[in-house]
Design brief:
This protein is mainly alpha-helical. The protein contains 7 helices and 2 strands, in the order αβααααβαα.
Length: 219
């Protein structure tokens, strides 16, 4: 009888001693970062901006390459060269040299700029997802929401990705009304072969900014 009482008392004390620790265990949620980028309005917008940058740069390189091929063909055409004055031939050779240098510069910058643009996209999405996650965490009384990629395994009921995306979309609509979401200027696509436009794009990205083409300098 005494032993039974002691065991019961010990179990009661042990349970009481561990109750606060159990109550203090964090309540977590997980979010799929990739899904937030590909499925949210913010993510789709940023991906479209990135694609616009890639298209503009590709167009400029293709335009320069085409012009360089045309001049090269002229320089290899002896009959055409014979029809030119010495001054015109020198100018043609100088233009060929200039375009060759531009081409090398553009190709070198191409991947640097795209990598920088991609990095800026990811950093911006981290901030947006973090802001939406904070709202969801407060609504569900979660202690934290972590990136699903950081976990080897999570229970399905911990996934709050859908809620985070919905909150991101709500914030997107609010920012869109307040004109805080930057749109690419569609007219910039027509100027994609302009050297000044490429330099403007490259300079801004190398300074750590994803520019709005609406702010692109004009002559």
């Amino acid at each position: 009888m005494l032993l039974t009482t002691w065991i019961f008392s010990f179990a009661a004390f042990f349970g009481a001693a561990n109750t606060p620790a159990q109550d203090s265990l964090p309540v977590n949620g997980v979010v799929n970062f990739a899904s937030c980028v590909t499925q949210s309005k913010y993510g789709k917008k940023e991906q479209a901006n990135f694609e616009q940058i890639r298209k503009q740069m590709t167009s400029l390189i293709e335009h320069t390459e085409k012009e360089l091929r045309e001049i090269t063909a002229k320089l290899e055409d002896t009959e055409y060269l014979d029809s030119l004055s010495p001054k015109a031939e020198d100018e043609l050779k100088a233009k060929h040299q200039s375009l060759s240098e531009d081409m090398g510069r553009y190709q070198q910058q191409f991947y640097q700029v795209l990598n920088q643009a991609n990095s800026q996209l990811i950093q911006k999405m981290i901030q947006i997802i973090g802001k939406a996650s904070k709202v969801v965490a407060e609504q569900k009384r979660l202690d934290c929401i972590i990136n699903q990629e950081a976990c080897f395994y999570t229970k399905a009921d911990l996934d709050v990705t859908t809620m985070v995306i919905e909150e991101m979309n709500r914030q997107f609509d609010t920012d869109q009304k307040a004109k805080k979401v930057s749109d690419l200027d569609e007219d910039a696509v027509d100027d994609s072969s302009d050297e000044e436009g490429f330099d403007f794009l490259s300079e801004n990205l190398m300074n750590g900014e994803l520019p709005s083409f609406a702010d692109q300098p004009t002559e």
